[in-house]
Amino acid sequence: MNINRLIFLLLFFIAVTGICETSDTASIHGTFVDAENGHPIPDVLVRVAPEQTAHVYPDREFEHATATGKDGTFSLTIPNEPQTYYAFSLMVIHPQYQSKRLRHEMTLGKSRYDLGKIALKRTLSLRGRVSGAENLTGLIVKLKMHNVSADFFRAAAPIEHAAKTDTEGKFQLTDLYPIAYTLTISRDGVIIAYIASVDPRKRDQISVRLPMMEALHARVVDTQERPIAGAQIYATRRPETPQAHGALLASTQTDETGSFQIQVLETEPQLLSIQVSKRGYFSRVYENVDIGKMPPVIRLEKGTTLEGRVSLPKDLPTDAQYAVKVFRAGADLEPSLNPLALQKPLLSRYFPVTEPIFTIDGLFAERYTLYIVGDGISATGIDVDASASPERVFVLADRPTTTVRGQVRWADTDEPVPDAVVSRSWYPWELYPHDMSMTLDRFEVETDTHGNFEFSNLTDARYQLHIRAVHAAREKNTGRYQRRLVHKQVEVPAVSTTYRIYIGKRDGTPFAK
């Protein structure tokens, strides 16, 4: 009987051990408490992203989520395949506490992670009172977080906050973070107070006396002294530091006589600029403006108008559009893997593909390079001379777009590389005049399980490709992964072939911890 029982226990132990070793999930447990008093915090949103071993971007999605109970505890389950995942990140969010991000590496054979007590700091608040005007009700008080490097809280913290003043001019802003903000107060869309930096860590109360407003009035006319109606006037305050924010103080437009009047917050001349613009005319920008010294008459020069006709591919959808993008003649139109280094077009105009005639106005009388672009349309350029006033330019842009396909493989084993990130170079005609180009969706893909990638809707041209992959090896002693990032750049033409690109593991560099 004892022998049978011993055999049963032995078999049970082997079974349990086998289950633990082959478990494909892991559980995470912890308790969130207030950093000041140690009390548990209920309703904390806990989001978890299992970081994949072979991914260059391991924590893009926080797909697993739960919330803490009344006792502040949480528990959730995440994937735990040892050949797929090597770490997990937690993003912790609560409206009354500062967001927090935690990261833990996973251990081979471990299926439960107890994080213990995790302290959260409360968010900050700012109370204030506005004075200096008879009617103080309903003023809009805004805080905008200063630009800083990617601190842990910026992934979840609100960038802007707003509140209204009561009848006494009082306001309160809550859920603030330990960082400087720019404060503005506005009425009817016009900013009437501006404070470059307010830090709730240094003070939780503030008094704001509304400064003086200055009246700017003038007439906008053309070079023949004829009034220009509908011209836009913008008064802008520039930021004092790279981290702070500027602000559009006020805006208006001219009436039928070309006249306008605008109330502008009293601002140091070196921080104030005035822009006057009207489509079809050259904009005029005044920097370092002293309101009292602004000219009473502002003259805008009418631009040259260029008319053209375009021939497009025949199989485009009837609801599609094409764009005409304008560059100065001689502009550098070479591609780059860094879109911020590219010259942006001076302006872009969009037209339905059903209307082959296009008109571009507001040009100087000089030479330009026009590019016709659009979905299914290979970018086609033409040099034009706006000073010559041609009757109509013709652009033959009937070439369809093409595709770049490839496969990434390891050089030493000839095996495909899945989850590698492949970025392609950009051409200036793919940008917009005010494009910051921080969205890489069209210019970056990941290889599939066979190492394949594809870029479509390309112009028949040469492209640089930047391949990034992860080579991971598990340490025998610790069971943890050592990950190395492998880079390679190649240049290929966009032709109907599939490129095979080999990358070497020895070219990798360790990830920074």
Describe this structure in words.
The chain is mainly β and 513 residues long. It has one helix at 2-22, and strands at residues 25-34, 45-52, 64-67, 73-79, 85-94, 97-105, 112-120, 124-131, 140-145, 160-164, 170-176, 181-187, 190-198, 205-209, 213-221, 232-237, 247-253, 259-265, 272-277, 284-286, 297-299, 304-311, 321-328, 347-352, 357-363, 367-374, 377-385, 393-396, 402-410, 421-424, 444-446, 452-458, 462-474, 481-493, 498-503, 509-510. A five-stranded antiparallel beta sheet has the order 31-30-33-34-36, with no helix packed on it. A four-stranded antiparallel beta sheet has the order 3-2-5-6, with no helix packed on it. The protein has a four-stranded antiparallel beta sheet with strand order 10-9-12-13, with no helix packed on it. A hairpin with a 2-residue loop joins strand 12 (181-187) and strand 13.
What keywords describe this structure?
513 residues, mainly beta, five-stranded antiparallel β-sheet, four-stranded antiparallel β-sheet, 1 helix, 4% helix
What proportion of the residues form beta strands (DSSP E)? over 45%
Shape: flat
- Gyration radius, rounded: 31 Å
Mean pLDDT value: 88
Question: How does the major sheet shape up?
Answer: 5 strands, antiparallel
Structural class: mainly beta
State the share of residues found in helices, binned by percent: under 10%
Strand runs, count: 36
Q: What strand order characterises the main sheet?
A: 31-30-33-34-36
Through-space gap between termini: 56 Å
Instruction: Indicate the low-confidence ranges by residue numbers.
Output: 1-22
